[in-house]
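Handout, section B. The chain below has 242 residues.
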Amino acid sequence: MNGESGDQAKRRTRVVLVDDDALVRAGLRMILGGADDLEVVAEAGDGIEGESVVERHRPDVVLMDIRMPRRDGLETTRALLSDAARAARAARGEELRVIVLTTFDADDMVVQALRDGASGFLLKDTEPRRLVDAVRQVAAGEPILSPSVTATLIAHVAGAAGAAAGDGGGRRSAAEARLADLTEREREVALAIGRGLSNADISRELYLSVPTVKAHVSRVLDKVGADNRVQVAIVIHDAGLT
């Protein structure tokens, strides 16, 4: 019996909460604590403490507030997901994923955190069931971006890029070039990513198994030169395909 309990504990997804609001942390702990497969192993009130706690407890997932005193969630996410930090975890057989918490769905800092490797973001008023599902999804290696959120982010980032560059034709040509090496199936997957579809959604729409979809997504990211799905969606947008 004890062996079975130990095995169950090992299968739990370990979560760290980083937020400067103690009430928010308490609410998150209560919500996640109701799931048998999730375990909140530590909390932190700012980014500096958060980085230390993450290194000490080695969680699978971090729920990271963006706006905090001393060090914000953006800088902390960048540090935790740097190439050096990833390499160190890989050597230990570990992987860390970050979910950004925010009150704004098109915050500049959220967009930057996604560019820096965060696996997605959640609004702080996300319903409890969705929050639990999101942590499970990210722990399984699938980013969380709903179609509406993806559309908002694309418009936000593309608009900022357009204002800075002032060359829509140049962006379109560059995006088309990045998509040129995709096979027909990979292009279909890329277009689905551009619409904000999850791997499961793509699997149903294209009649592919989820593992096959994951393999295609990996190849799309590699060929397009993107670190995450949001970046792929931006390329699709810039190419005029959404």
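Note. Residues 199 and 211 are 9 Å apart (CA to CA). Compare this with the example in section A.
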